[in-house]
Amino acid sequence: MPKLDLAKAYKSYYKAAKKPEIVEFSEANYLSIEGKGEPAGEVFVSRVAALYPLAYGIKKICKAQDKDFGVPKLEGLWWVEGNRPALEVSRKEWCWKLLIRMPEFVAIEMMQSVQPEVAEKKKNELIEEISFEKITEGKCIQIMHFGPYSTEPETIELLMEFMTGNGYSVNGLHHEIYLSDPRKTEPAKMKTIIRYPIK
Prior knowledge:
- With 199 residues, the chain is of the alpha+beta class.
- The chain folds into two domains: 19-26 and 137-199, Regulatory factor, effector binding domain (Multidrug-efflux Transporter 1 Regulator Bmrr, Chain A); 30-135, Regulatory factor, effector binding domain (Multidrug-efflux Transporter 1 Regulator Bmrr, Chain A).
- The protein is built from four helices and eight strands.
- It has an eight-stranded antiparallel beta sheet with strand order 1-6-8-7-3-4-2-5, with helices on one face.
- Helix 2 crosses helix 3.
């Protein structure tokens, strides 16, 4: 079986236009871990560092079963507690759930079988906190954001104007897919998909 590239297998999931568009997604599998604090802060970075070793541990099992796949891009769901707009809340109070999508043939039992071994090998107890989740976002609105994370509010405003202008409202969490590695990409050239479930 050829190596699975999720970005090619699910093209519509990992692509977005420069203008707002309405899309729809079915159920998908994810590794997930929650946290609270500013993006790229100590808590955030430590959870990212826990997710990837487990994803590669699962990949190793799948490869041995002739079902190899490329570990895809990091994703994040974001929210704040209470009814205040997110931009009026301190970044230290932002809540998030980090995600890495898994192929359809990966099941929770596979994750659980390798989780203790990876946690011990990496000496990282956070790996034991990672969950296996099935998420169905359904109908969504999305856009591709170009540039640094700090300029996202302008792109989100475009998205919201399009959404309300077409008679929709938000029906889920703010979702980002990080297509660029900020350690290797100039801020102006970074690409991030911004997505919201709608109704």
